[in-house]
Design brief:
Pfam families: DJ-1_PfpI (PF01965), HTH_18 (PF12833). Keywords: Transcription, Transcription regulation. The strands form three sheets. Strands 4-3-7-8-12-11 form a six-stranded mixed β-sheet, sandwiched between helices. A four-stranded mixed β-sheet has the order 1-2-6-5, with no helix packed on it. By secondary structure, it is α/β, with parallel strands linked by helices. Helix content is 45%, strand content 14%. The radius of gyration is 22 Å and the shape is globular. The protein is built from 15 helices and twelve strands.
Length: 354
């Protein structure tokens, strides 16, 4: 699938159409990606890339199953995104055929998009309940909220519009920190790249953890951040810190978690007194150095719980907790789950040795 040019602008055509639904091989999954003028391109291309890579590996394995991907819109045709690139919607919104997985993209100016696309809101209202999985990506949650299908449910969205979503729809329990949330057949995700996390979760659910891990490796990303994990990892937060000396300490901490780091070590790394370092760190990061260190260790713990079969005692040692019990207590404070329960809930692999 190569970009075409239309009036000097790049256009990417959909590889599927509604007419192909009847000829899909047994066990295949129908996916409808819903776009509209001004949609966020990354939220469309990211999931399509995940599903396309999954199809490639299924074919290499001799597996005839696949994802049948259909790009649809309120009106078929060339749909401009929030960038210079447009996507070609092969069909309008499906009205009669059964829906398996639906992904509704978000928009930068979501309130304007929702007001303009009243037909899409009505379509969500009528068709969401019948789909196996109906997902809103990023600010696409506003379409579902306006349709009334998120009332009484928890929902994720981009952090920048989380407060607005809660104000507009008090009946929706907005989780401003979650990467993605599943409530029944309704799924919502945080901003932009979280759509990739959500789609990897679909691949894992449909074809198992090994395929999802293979796709994640192809895309050079983590398998998936569990839905309840923070939208901002401690490593990402370090990249956003303005003071270079604090940013350097954060990166250094993330690279040395297995060591018995103390506040004095962090201050020495910054070349500052403990008092001045603590003051500046809290001003820049919003939490104390000690709290940051614990959060970083818990974040690394979560990664090892999902991506390895290491025993809990070994994980505790690798992330710098003196004992397994200290790790358990800190982890519960951070994630409201024990490490063992976290692994059981978010890992669908056969790793059971911990």
């Amino acid at each position: 699938m190569f970009p075409l040019l239309h009036d000097g602008q790049p256009v990417i055509e959909s590889g599927g159409s509604d007419s192909r639904c009847a000829t899909a091989s047994a066990g295949s999954h129908q996916v409808h990606l819903v776009i509209y003028p001004g949609f966020k391109l990354m939220e469309a291309v990211g999931p399509v890339s995940v599903l396309s890579y999954a199809n490639r590996h299924l074919a290499l394995q001799g597996d005839s199953r696949r994802y049948e991907i259909h790009i649809v819109a309120p009106q078929a045709g060339r749909i401009p995104s929030d960038t210079l690139i447009s996507l070609e919607a092969s069909a309008g919104l499906p009205e009669r055929e059964a829906l398996s997985t639906v992904l509704v993209a978000g928009a930068l100016d979501i309130e304007t998009a929702v007001a303009r696309e009243a037909g899409l809101v009505d379509w969500c209202r009528r068709r969401a309940a019948s789909a196996k999985r109906f997902a809103a990506l990023c600010s696409g949650s506003f379409f579902l909220a306006n349709a009334g299908v998120l009332s009484g449910r928890r929902a994720a969205t981009h952090w920048s519009v989380a407060t607005l979503l809660q104000q507009r729809f008090p009946s929706v329990e907005v989780d401003a920190d979650a990467i993605f949330i599943q409530e029944g057949n309704m799924w919502t995700s945080a901003g932009v790249t979280a759509a990739i996390d959500l789609t990897l979760a679909f691949v894992e659910q449909d074809f198992g953890r090994n395929l999802a891990l293979t796709v994640a490796r192809d895309l050079v990303i983590y398998l998936k951040r569990p839905g309840g994990q923070s939208q901002f990892s401690d490593l990402l937060n370090s990249q956003m810190t303005a003071a270079p000396e604090i940013r350097d300490v954060q990166s250094w901490v993330m690279s040395n978690l297995s060591k018995p780091l103390q506040l004095e070590d962090m201050a020495d790394k910054a070349g500052m007194s403990v008092r001045n370092f603590t003051r500046l760190f809290k001003e820049e990061v919003g939490i104390s150095p000690a709290s940051y260190l614990v959060r970083a260790r818990c974040e690394r713990t979560a990664t090892l719980l999902l991506d390895s079969d290491l025993p809990l005692k070994t994980i505790a040692s690798r992330v710098g907790f003196p004992t397994e019990e200290q790790m358990r207590k800190a982890f519960v404070r951070q994630f409201s789950l024990t490490p063992r329960a976290y692994r059981a809930r978010f890992s669908t692999s056969s790793l059971k040795s911990a």
